[in-house]
Amino acid sequence: MLLLTRLLRAVVSLWVIVTLVFVALRATGDPILAIFNPDDTTQAALDAYREQWGYTGTILQQYFTYVNNVFHGAFGISNMSNRDALSVVLERLPATLQLVGCSAVVMIVVGVPVGALAAIDNGGRLDRTIMSLSTVGFALPNFVLGLALILLLSVNLRLLPSNGYGSWQNLIMPVLTIGLAKAAIFTRFVRSAVLDALRLSCVTSARARGLGEFQIFLHHVIPNAMLPLVTITPLLVGSMIAAGSVVESVFGWPGVGRLIVDSVAQRDLAVLQVIIMMVAFLMIATNLIVDLAYAKLDPRTALAHNN
Amino acid sequence: MSVVASEKPARRFPGMPLAAQISILWLVVCLSLIIIVPFLPGVSETKVNLLTRLKPPVGFGGTWAHFLGTDDLGRDIFLRLVASLRTSLALALGATIISAFIGTTLGILAAHFRGWVDQLIVAAVDAQASVPFIIVSLTLTAFFGNNIFLFIFILGMFGWERFARLSRAMTLASRGRGYVLAMNTLGFPWPRIYLRHVLPNIASTLLVTATINFPEVILLETSLSFLGLGIQPPMSSLGNMLGFGRSYLLTGWWIAVVPGITIFLCTLTVSIIGDWARNVIGRA
Amino acid sequence: MNSDKIAERVCRVENLGIALGGDQPIPLVEDVSFEIAKGGYFALVGESGSGKSITCHSMMRLLPFKPEFKGRIVIDGQDVWSLSRSQLIQFRRKSVGMVFQDPLAALNPVRTIGSQMLETLRLYYPSARADELRTRAIDALKGVHIPMAEQRLDIYPHQLSGGLNQRVMIALAMLGDPALLIADEPTTALDMSVQAEVLDLIDEMRRKNNLTVLLVTHDLGIVRDRATHIAVMHKGRLVEQGPTAEIVNAPKAEYSRELFNAASVEWPDRETGKLRHNPLALTFDDVNKTFYSTARDRKAGIGVPAAKSMSFTVHRGEIVALVGESGSGKTTAAKMALGLVSPDSGRITTHASEQSGSPKLNVQMVFQHPRDSLDPLMKVDDQLHEVLKVHGWRDAAARKAHIAQITQDVGLGAHVLERRPTYLSGGEAQRVVIARALLLKPDVLIADEPLSAVDVRIQKHILECFQRLRERLGIAILLITHDLRVVFEIADQVVVLRNGEVIEDIPVSLFTDGKRHEYTQMLIDAMPGKTAVQVHQIEPHGAVATNGRI
Predict the structure, then answer these.
(1) Facing residue for B271 by CB, picked from A24, A27, A138
(2) Reduced 3-state DSSP string for A214-255
(3) Could you say which of B193, B279, C208, C240 has the lowest number of CB atoms within 10 Å?
């Protein structure tokens, strides 16, 4: 029952996004003129497109046509490449998934142990060093770190190609740029989650029963520290897509992020709406998954009772 | 000698770590430059001189005439930097004030009215927090075209949810069993309670939030400008200065490095001050 | 070594000193020494912040910070603070068991009861098979009288009641057959009705296993009936210790005398009821209020009733106590009287007298947490002036005179006016709040648990203040409390609430006549120090010439 309401809420969220995009499209003037240049398109062709993509009739009819089109994956034609917008986006997807996936691995592999170490050494020298590094990492903009890496590793040391796509050498710098920046933030979350878990009364009581520190960490601290991290991790991974828009531009990475920037510059609304809905869909889907994971991890949630 | 020198400021600001003191010093220097440099006689950050193009900074073969070097058009990097810094800091400050105002107002309204108003505002806060903001701002830029007013609006929208969440929580807390409830039973009008009592009491926390928001706005502004979607020439900000300098990494690395380091130092120093302030408030 | 003596005394604490480390260490516990004989039941008593919890946590080296430690703690023949890391773990496994204040928090919320028991059992039987351990776990749960023990293994702590969780904690603490059981406020987080059961269980464990018990508590009622020895702690030091009978009957230290006085019960034998003829101040007439958590619940009619046909009256100069457990509707009644919550049906009327300031603000409130109800940034004087300014007092001199008069009424010195709330003591803050409420000349004052947040010493002053107000100004006071001692001491009329229903509405002198509703009787029985009442009841004019106090 609760699962059903969650699903329903997800569908409603999606519908709200589709509607917002529709409103925005209509609010920006004649969408056909935004897609086609009227100077080199005949009036007849424009009318034909209007007909084809449902820009005729009352606004309500247009809305239903639009929702129907979206439902069938028909988002229109990209004016940058004159191809179907959906396939333009889809062909960029693997590059972005590769980048985001590797960066997420870097973030977790760096963030979890480092954050846990900082928490265990709460207030000590190691903790302060880690926190200072985290502040630096947070303050360092993506594009500055990216350009610094290019200057150092490509221009000066000539170790890695400064941009491009395909080989593992191309992947290193963008992944480091995104992964380390997010690791700086993630470390803080891990630290405070572990700190909170360490302060739990059940950890004290486990200690009083004579459990070893390692066992306590494994069985009492980690399961409790997981709960807040499960919520924050997808948000950070989601924000990697956003960071991708900058980093992909710096390193010439042919992913969705760079496509966003290019289509904003070209005002390619057809491509842009595909990206928006894709991002929205991903966020809503991950939120749903997080809810389920949370229920699995925390028996106190209502959803857990349901299962 | 050195011991004495480091002890002196420590006594002036008890408990303030050295890093925070240096950070404040850096910001003071930045602010002074922004204010003083435009009044210096005979300086112009837009003066083109093709005879002195791509001169490196002092220490890398350059001269004191252009101590941070010149760009591809022979403009002085230092003067351009100061002008860009002014734009970036002013935008970040203005945006933070706007988002603090919007957020705090909505937060207090949500806590005051509860019910559906509260739910609506909380839903908006959650939505805002779960979508990467840079995507939202790119989208808005695409739909409504690139102009300075939209840009300020976008920056001002950034981070309001943080202020809203905090002020809502703190207002609710003082409403439940604290002085807000007490003043209500004493017949105080609501606006007076919120303006004269709640706001001053949550101001320090909001200020700390602002120090967290501020560097992020700088990052957002510079990122968008770097991508060519924010501040447009002839205006310059740190981000678009770096964006243009990127093309000269091989021939004039300093064009990109100088604003890059400046952005980094600005966000870092404000973050350090924010961390320190948060610690102080947490202890109090 | 004098091993016989150590075996006799399970626990010996010598000159214990604990300070929060740093450049200037903050002393938390100073010069605490006591011994517990084998099989003894030792109670460490004190108010919150007295250092009793720190003392008992230091006995297992469980402090949440790195302390500066002085003195010696010897338990079960081991010098606790000189044990190595691995010795300490063995010590915790074998020598001491500990029970915590909040059993739900002391158990890991994301793991089943069984897994936590098996994990602990594994420490003692490293090579046992899983089903063997399971049998042992079930036996352990049966040992603490948990019904359906086998099924309980597979559920999570939040699915059990607080009382059962505390039983699980006791079972866990007893798994290693310890010599000493430390119970840190084991009943504070529990409902009144199960508190006694948990204490009985600890008694049973002590008898069966020849266990030594250290009970840490603020509740003197528990201590009187069960402990063999009592030590009273105040501000990090032991003020007094000795056998229970000695301490209870003739406390020597001034602080423990006050503590015991405050906890003892004065028999309400004064004449009450004549105030019932005074004019009405506040009436509740058939008031109903139900809270619904969702709109669907509202439609279905599934709600939490906070008032069901609630009717009672408060007269001028009278103190009416509204008594009940949490959730009984007493706070909602106060909010409705203040107009903060409107009733679903029925009428709440305040009857303004000629001296009343404003009919709308005729009911004023004194809060449970006085310091929270003052603006922390403003001087007291400014806050009092502001109340009058908001209500149109333009003349500064008139305001000043009025404030001076009222601060005098509540017994507040002029120096307090210049301070900010942070620098007020708990008692001063409470009187400032009372003064602020009186500024608007109300006829009715509602006091919501006005004593729960202040020290025992100050409680008396506040009660005296209430007495003075009703006598001098004829103010009616609606006192909301769960503490029957306060009721007996000051109230004229008692209204007992349960689930929003008025169960009793009687003069306080009839309260313990033995003919009361079973719920009222339960409240009386659950009262700390109730033995004193019963003794007194049997021998109203007995040899114990203590004026009803013990």
Answers:
(1) A138
(2) HHHHHHHHHHHHHHHHHHHHHHHHHHHHHHHHHHHHHHCCCC
(3) C208
- Is the model's pLDDT at C270 over the cut of 70? no
Q: What residues contact C267, with CB distance under 8 A and at least 6 apart?
A: C488, C512, C533, C536, C548
Tokens 């828009």 identify what position? Answer: A245
Q: Is C315 helix (H, G, I), strand (E, B) or coil?
A: strand
Residue C212 DSSP symbol: E
Touching check for A206 and chain C: CB below 8 Å?
yes
Tokens of C265: 């019960």
- Chain C residues in contact with B187 (beta carbon < 8 A): 358, 360-361, 390-391, 440
Q: Which chains touch C (3 or more CB pairs under 8 A)?
A: A, B
pLDDT for C1: 43
Average pLDDT, integer, range A243-272: 86
CATH of domain A90-268+282-299: 1.10.3720.10
Burial of C181 (C-beta count, 10 Å sphere; 0-12/13-18/19+): buried
pTM for the model stands at 0.80
Name residues whose C-beta falls within 8 Å of residue A205's C-beta, 6 or more positions apart in sequence: C98, C100, C106, C107, C169, C172
Can you read off the two tokens belonging to residue C405?
């008069």
Structure tokens at C93: 């496994």
Tell me the domain boundaries of chain C.
106-177, 273-362+442-532, 371-439
Q: Does domain C273-362+442-532 have CATH number 3.40.350.10?
A: no
Q: What is the mean pLDDT of each run of 10 residues along chain B (284 residues)?
A: 35 67 92 86 73 75 75 81 90 92 94 87 83 83 81 89 91 80 88 90 86 88 86 84 83 85 91 84 60
Q: How far apart are CA B204 and CA C542, in angstroms?
A: 62
- Quick check: A135 and B264 CB within 8 A? no
Of B139, B223, B250, Cβ closest to residue A246: B223
- Whether the pLDDT of residue C215 is over 90: the answer is yes
Task: Tell me whether residues C433 and B200 touch, CB distance under 8 A.
Answer: no
Axis crossing angle, helix C192-209 with helix C162-174, rounded to the nearest 10: 20
Instruction: Using alpha carbons, list the distances in angstroms from residue C439 to C18, C338, C339, C400, C412.
Output: 46, 16, 19, 11, 14
What residue segments make up the domains of chain A, in order of their start? 2-71, 90-268+282-299
pLDDT-derived band at C362 (thresholds 50, 70, 90) equals confident
Three-state DSSP at C539 gives: coil
Checking if the pLDDT of A63 tops 60, the result is yes
